[in-house]
Amino acid sequence: MKQGRLQYGDIINYIALTLISLSMLFPFLYVFSVSLTDPATYVQGEFILLPKEFSLDSYKFVLGTGQLWNSVKATLFITVVGTVLNLFVTMTFAYVLTKNDMPGWKLFTYMVLFMMFFHAGMVPGYLLVRELGLMNSLWALILPGLTNPWSLFVVRSFYRSIPSSLEEAAYIDGANDLTIFQKVILPLSKPVIAAFSLFFAVGLWNTYLSGIFYIQDPKKWPLQVFLSQMIIESNTDLGSSANFDDVRQVQPPSETIKMASLVLVMIPILLVYPFLQKHFAKGVLLGSVKG
Amino acid sequence: MIRYRWMYLLAVPGLLYFLIFQYAPMWGILLAFQDYNPYRGFWGSEWVGFENFRTFFSYGDFWPLLRNTLTISVLNLLLSFPAPIILALMINEVRTEAFKRITQTVVYLPHFLSWVIVVSFTFLFFSLDIGFVNKALASVGLEKIPFLSDTLYFYGLLVGQTIWKEVGWGTIIFLAAIAGVDPQLYEAATVDGAGRLRKIWHVTLPAIRSTIVILLILRTGDILNVGFEQILLMLNPMVQSIGDVFDTYVYRQGILSGNFSYSIAVGLFKSVAGLILVAGANFLSKKFGEEGLY
């Protein structure tokens, strides 16, 4: 009797979870499916689930636009250079934050903590980038976000889990802090480096806001700005939107082409995702409030 | 000091970053008390005291922004906050390991997509002409619905997007908390004749209560921070009146229109109010006997 009731609850639970999972996957499947439909035969009002006239023309069209490649270049630059710099700043500074008997440690820690709660704000940050002469430069999408308190504290708590006897042994052997960091700490930090490389890379790949803040030249638009232009700004039933009135494309691209662009921008994320998921779950828990 | 000379060297990149990109902009806050004119510069511009703040509060822009921000926050608190808890409880009940793993992999995925992609999905599903939903409605002879340009659906779309994107990711912390529950408690409950739902109610939920409470308190500290990127992408003239929030307003006034002093004043108001809220929230979480954030 009791067994039977449990089974019943299980079935409902499995069905509900399957439906939830499908709702997560359906947008991908739909977008992928339409992107593979022949743009010439595709009628705007048409309701389709599977491609009728299979064709790669939409992809050929998007891949043939110079704007896409400009944006790919810009995004690859900020993703690769940004990830390396983010890692460098985060790994080094987080290590400093573990040395709580070092003069100045308190000041450094409070500097980071304060940033968790108070920011100068959007416009002062914007004016700073302008003053530094970084307008319209891809560095403006990298430098203002080189690290953040959350990452610093997560990496710090990882370092703290490394037995301090290792450092002490190396110290007695005559190594200085710099060598210890390079030869002892960093090699042990591979899992955290892996997690944060992916974490920073995804964040930079997804850069959008600073793109519209700082980049006026469409040749330097990151991919997300390209995509928003392609799909959101050119959406026909909304009339004029607050942003980009002057750079609006004349002809809204066909739906299959929009979907193909969307797929292309998503592909790298979907490719790294399987690797990233495992690391990330751990990263989140490491840094989470101690519940 | 000598002992740590190499540590100071390691600190240089981080310190430079914080000084230049986090602390130097603090200077900009002073512009909130000026009538800043870029041509005359910081030293040449006139000081006006709290004039910019007075303008903001007395010309009627403040209340709609506060109302919109709070509405979106409260909806998220009521709907997006409990969603991962419920999903975590559901996932926890799954006994088939493979099914559990697949479900988790799938529900985490949207978290990694940018807001541009999530909003693009929304457009491709809900817009009037090309939206999947409207095509489906039309194909069965029903009237099309202007989801994106009708104030009726705006909040629903925002909350729906937030749940879709973050619900799976949010389960991680609750699943970890559930994993920490002592199995003996479940055995004892089984002996007492508790069914599955009763075990969830009397064992699992109380066990993760402190996690829920602390996250909830921290969220209330963040109540003025609604998704800037998400809302900016979703805003259009038709829903402007109910969708404009502090950040989108500051963006329009400051970066698009160049009203620097005024927009910095508005931003400063938001930062200070946020600081008070977070500090209050942290105080509360300590009061509840939790560790707090700092």
Automatic annotation (TrEMBL), chain A:
Family of the protein in this entry: Belongs to the binding-protein-dependent transport system permease family.
Top-level taxon of the source organism: Bacteria
Family matches, as InterPro entries: MetI-like (IPR000515), MetI-like_sf (IPR035906)
Membrane topology: Multi-pass membrane protein
UniProt-listed SUPFAM superfamilies: MetI-like
Pfam families with a match to the protein in the record: BPD_transp_1 (PF00528)
Protein name: Carbohydrate ABC transporter permease
UniProt KW Transmembrane keyword: yes
Species annotation: Paenibacillus antri
Gene Ontology CC: plasma membrane
Bilayer-spanning residue ranges: 12-32, 74-96, 108-128, 134-155, 192-215, 257-276
PANTHER family per the UniProt record, alphabetical: ABC TRANSPORTER PERMEASE PROTEIN MG189-RELATED-RELATED, POLYGALACTURONAN_RHAMNOGALACTURONAN TRANSPORT SYSTEM PERMEASE PROTEIN YTCP
Residues annotated as domain ABC transmembrane type-1: 72-275
Keywords annotated in UniProt: Cell membrane, Membrane, Transmembrane, Transmembrane helix, Transport
UniProtKB/TrEMBL annotation, chain B:
Chief site of localization: membrane
Spans traversing the lipid bilayer: 7-33, 70-91, 112-133, 153-179, 260-284
Gene Ontology biological process terms in this record: transmembrane transport
UniProt-annotated location(s): Cell membrane; Membrane
SUPFAM superfamilies per the UniProt record, alphabetical: MetI-like
A Pfam family matched in the record: BPD_transp_1
GO annotation, cellular component aspect: plasma membrane
Domain of life, per lineage: Bacteria
Alphabetically ordered keywords of this record: Membrane, Transmembrane, Transmembrane helix, Transport
Stored CDD domains: TM_PBP2 (cd06261)
InterPro entries hit by this protein: MetI-like, MetI-like_sf
Topology versus the membrane: Multi-pass membrane protein
Database matches in Gene3D superfamilies: MetI-like
Domain ABC transmembrane type-1: 66-281
PANTHER family found in the cross-reference section: POLYGALACTURONAN_RHAMNOGALACTURONAN TRANSPORT SYSTEM PERMEASE PROTEIN YTEP (PTHR43496:SF1), PROTEIN LPLB (PTHR43496)
The family this protein is said to belong to: Belongs to the binding-protein-dependent transport system permease family.
Protein name, UniProt field: Sugar ABC transporter permease
The organism of origin for this protein: Paenibacillus antri
